[in-house]
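DATA SHEET
Item: assembly model
Revision: 1
Owner: S.N.
Input lines:
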Amino acid sequence: QKEVEQDPGPLSVPEGAIVSLNCTYSNSAFQYFMWYRQYSRKGPELLMYTYSSGNKEDGRFTAQVDKSSKYISLFIRDSQPSDSATYLCAMSGSFQKLVFGTGTRLLVSP
Amino acid sequence: DGGITQSPKYLFRKEGQNVTLSCEQNLNHDAMYWYRQDPGQGLRLIYYSQIVNDFQKGDIAEGYSVSREKKESFPLTVTSAQKNPTAFYLCASHLAGTGGLGELFFGEGSRLTVL
């Protein structure tokens, strides 16, 4: 079993939809949770960074962490065609290396 | 502008040849990393370095070598011993000493194809 599981998609939605992206994990030592966005043939860029459980909002993006269920989510409101990309979850414990999910490919159609 | 520069963007090599991928950063970051990305496998850590003249193996170091002679530079050599070198290679960096390692800055990547 992988430490971090993420559905590869693709996930296709119409413009304006609410998107939900998810990851599950098995290592209870993980405390830091990240979402990266990666456009085709580019390096990933950090979208959201959360410590421990709870919600964090930034514009149209909301990150949720439920440590009791070992489940993290990224919600995108009012999705735009420019949101079409691969979304990678990543997580780590203190001073430990990052573990990445495989990424979910999102397609937002106009 | 501060950032990470990887070169070349695309590289084609014949089997059995060593290849060196360049990674330079002007962010004054202490730690640098090399990842490999394959479809369906996410990012896998090859090597990392927390300080000049020191580096550690990641999860898939076999067939790769690195050096860290300068803070700004962390080149990766893909040797002929690497059995399946065709992949997208990503270099990243961050400020060392933080509890969480999440805020990695990535370069644009180098796509290596071995013919």
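QC remark: Chain A touches chain B at residues 4, 6, 8, 31-34, 41-46, 49, 51, 88, 90, 92, 94-98, 100-103 (CB under 8 Å).
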